[in-house]
């Protein structure tokens, strides 16, 4: 009898631990990965900015190029309030070229540098004129 009771208690505790550990995992994936649109008419080499969005973790930012003929050159910036010209947090080559009809996960140090908001600075990579259109999110899944 005692052995069965101890087994039941042990199984109940282990079940509770598994449920709680899975709940923590589910919460960690609840980041800001919903897509927002960005667009601008470019081609003269000027930079354009997206809206500022909350960044909730250390994951890569994401961008999708919706153009069929323009390459987007993108950098990831961090801020805590307002646009921050000193907040370039792009890792790698200093920018990402996202080719037409493709996407990129952009490594960045926004969260690691203490910023809790992010935005993109983008332009057409080869100065072709036209509407630069895409989707982006500050966090990825």
What does the model show?
With 141 residues, this protein is of the alpha+beta class. It has one helix and nine strands. It has one helix spanning 2-28, and strands spanning 36-42, 48-49, 53-54, 61-65, 72-79, 96-98, 103-106, 117-124, 130-137. The strands form two sheets. Strands 2, 3, 5, 6 and 8 form a five-stranded antiparallel β-sheet that branches. A four-stranded antiparallel β-sheet has the order 1-9-4-7, with no helix packed on it.
Poorly predicted tracts of residues: 19-28
What are the secondary-structure elements, in order, as H or E? HEEEEEEEEE
| Average pLDDT number | 87
Evaluate the radius of gyration: 21 Å
End-to-end C-alpha gap: 48 Å
Percent of sequence in beta strands? 25-35%
Q: Into which percent range does the helicity of residues fall? A: 10-25%
| Spatial shape | elongated
Number of discrete helical segments: 1
Structural class: alpha+beta
Number of strands: 9
Biggest beta sheet summary: 5 strands, antiparallel
Concise summary:
The protein is of the alpha+beta class.
Compile the SSE list and pairings.
Layout (H helix, E strand, L loop, with lengths): L1 H27 L7 E7 L5 E2 L3 E2 L6 E5 L6 E8 L16 E3 L4 E4 L10 E8 L5 E8 L4
Antiparallel strand pairs: 1-9, 2-8, 3-8, 4-7, 4-9, 5-6, 5-8
Notable traits:
141 residues, alpha+beta, four-stranded antiparallel beta sheet
């Amino acid at each position: 009898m005692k052995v069965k009771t101890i087994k039941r208690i042990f199984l109940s505790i282990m079940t509770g631990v598994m449920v709680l550990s899975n709940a923590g995992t589910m919460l960690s994936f609840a980041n800001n990965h919903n897509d927002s649109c960005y667009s601008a008419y470019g081609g003269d080499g000027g930079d354009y900015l997206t809206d500022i969005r909350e960044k909730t973790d250390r994951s890569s930012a994401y961008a999708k190029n919706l153009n069929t003929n323009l390459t987007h050159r993108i950098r990831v910036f961090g801020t805590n309030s307002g646009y921050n010209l000193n907040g370039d947090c792009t890792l790698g080559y200093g920018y990402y070229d996202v080719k037409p009809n493709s996407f990129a996960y952009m490594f960045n140090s926004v969260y690691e540098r203490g910023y809790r908001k992010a935005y993109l600075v983008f332009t057409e990579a080869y100065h072709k004129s036209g509407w630069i259109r895409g989707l982006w999110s500050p966090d990825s899944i």
